[in-house]
Design a protein that fits this description.
This protein is an alpha+beta fold. The chain has six helices and 19 strands. It has helices spanning about 25-40, 50-55, 80-90, 115-125, 195, 280-290, and strands spanning about 15-20, 45, 60, 75-80, 95-100, 130-135, 135-140, 145-150, 150-155, 165-170, 175-180, 180-185, 210-215, 225-230, 235, 245-250, 250-255, 260-265, 270-275. The strands form four sheets. Strands 8-7-18-15-10-11 form a six-stranded antiparallel beta sheet, with no helix packed on it.
Length: about 290
């Protein structure tokens, strides 16, 4: 599957809008944007709680989980956290997503407020790319329930003081037993998120790899490892004294008993992110990390 579609993809017929209603800016930014969409007669739908918070009674609205079923592109207004929350809504739908950031450090939200109207014109003309990003699939104790993560799956000690032991295998072959606060399994997209704060490497977001990074390991010999994306990783918590937390992208969390076994692999379908020409990953990296200052 190709990583990017060329410029000239079909313009969206209907866009779905969702915003971080906890940000005060949303009540100023979104009404102005909706007025612009009505002016240029660009069809849109609005997430119902977002509509309620900004006082919009004119728009067609849907519950958040229904939004991707009624549009062919989603715009998420907020930051990376809002983007991840919105991404989990479209995870099982072939709907591209575009993030509009309202300030702060972030890598996922593609468009700033200053660029918003120009980027909307580009969407109308089909002058954008759709970039496929790896998604991780996680199963707990071989359950039928499947969790997904765009950034990372985290297995940690759930707030307890003592470290936990995590017996880790790759494709059924033993790798190591980590004594640590936890373990992060990150995608290349997630390499600039939680994994980075543990000392993990930064990867280009379209690379085919998975990062395995221990959180505060008991020994410095336990270092992050980058493995191929076709590997299946199995992590068993062998500690007997505490519960653990399995968390996907900081959005979905499940508390588990000792002895839990988590199996992580690349999901069948990628996430589709809207990207625009002229935006280079290393420029963004330099800007966000203040390199060269």
């Amino acid at each position: 599957m190709s990583t990017k579609k060329l410029l000239g993809v079909h313009p969206p017929k209907v866009i779905g809008l969702i915003g971080n209603t906890k940000k005060p800016e949303i009540s100023e930014v979104l009404p102005r944007y909706l007025a612009r969409l009505r002016e240029i007669q660009f069809p849109f739908i609005l997430e119902e709680n977002t509509a309620k918070v900004i006082g919009d009674t004119k728009s067609i609205t849907f519950a958040a989980e229904q939004l991707p079923k009624h549009c062919d592109l989603v715009l998420s207004f907020g930051g990376d956290g809002t983007f991840l929350s919105s991404a989990h809504l479209v995870m099982n739908h072939p709907v591209p997503i575009l993030g509009v950031h309202l300030g702060g450090l972030g890598y996922l939200a593609e468009v700033s407020l200053d660029e918003l109207f120009d980027r909307t014109d580009a969407l109308l003309k089909g002058n954008y790319m759709v970039e496929n990003r790896m998604v991780l699939e996680a199963r707990v104790n071989n359950s039928k329930e499947v969790y997904h993560a765009l950034n990372e799956v985290t297995i940690d000690k759930a707030g307890y003081i003592r470290t936990i032991r995590l017996r880790t295998c790759i494709d059924g072959k033993y790798l190591n037993t980590y004594t640590a606060d936890g373990l992060i399994l990150a995608t290349p997209t997630g390499s600039t998120a939680y994994s980075l704060s543990t000392g993990g490497p930064i990867l280009e977001p379209t690379m085919k790899a998975i990062i395995l990074a221990p959180i505060c390991p008991h020994t410095l010999l336990h270092r992050p490892v980058v493995i191929r994306d076709d590997k299946v990783i199995e992590v068993e918590v062998t500690s007997s004294h505490t519960e653990v937390m399995v968390t996907m992208d900081g959005q979905i969390a499940t508390r588990q008993a000792p002895g839990v076994r988590v199996t992580i692999k690349k999901a069948k379908y990628p996430m589709q992110l809207v990207r625009f020409p002229g935006r280079y990953f290393y420029d963004v990296l330099r800007e966000k990390l203040n390199w060269g200052e």
